[in-house]
Amino acid sequence: MDHASKKRKSSTSLDQPAKKPRPPPPADAHAAQDSPLCQPHAAMLGALAAKYDVLPASIISSTPIRKRVVRVTTHLLSPDGQKPRVVLLHGRVPETCKLITVAEMCKRLLYVHDCPAWYQYNQLFELPPGDAERGRRKASKHVVEETVLQGEERDEEEDEDESDAFETMQSRFENAVLPPTPDRTTKSLRIFLSTVPIPELKATDGVSVQTSETSDAE
Predict the structure, then answer these.
(1) Any coiled-coil ranges, and where (predicted)?
(2) How far apart are CA 148 and CA 154, in angstroms?
(3) 89 beta partners
(4) How far apart are CA 141 and CA 139, in angstroms?
(5) Cα 77 to chain center, whole Å?
(6) Is the pTM of this model over 0.85?
(7) What is the DSSP string of 113-155?
């Protein structure tokens, strides 16, 4: 093969168009709503779905605050779509402070982007039994540790046999006379953020409203 044919072959291979990278697969719009953390909000999300484009955003211990803030504000400020956009922030009890921090940072970012107004709807919701039990264990962990340490610091010479016997007898009488203690319910906080008022949420029992407008949200 002469030099000219080698050159033609080389140029032909270079002239072939490069393969375009495949676009990333589209995100499943229902994946977040189908997660176990989102189950307590299913009824409310279903009621709002007909009129609003609601993005559920869970707050967990490993959630980067900046990443969640960007996702929330991007959804709220995106102009495309025929439905008003809403974000649901939710989490378990130990993440409540983190959830509030995300909401406050989102509102500041909306102000920076000259958003005409923002609306925040707060409500306590009941956690499922499994999530409630995990939250109680995590919240009371340090209390148990402190109790154990205080017990170790007690004087070993203190005679507690009589007091223990009295408390045991007292608890038996109480159990026989008093009614059983009702099961406790554990609640956490969920926050709806929007750039438009949501009358459906304002009319819901137990919902408090905050807004950047001077007048009450209507």
Answers:
(1) none
(2) 10
(3) 57, 191
(4) 6
(5) 20
(6) no
(7) TT-S--EEEEEEEEPPHHHHHHHHHHHTHHHHHHHHHHHHTS-
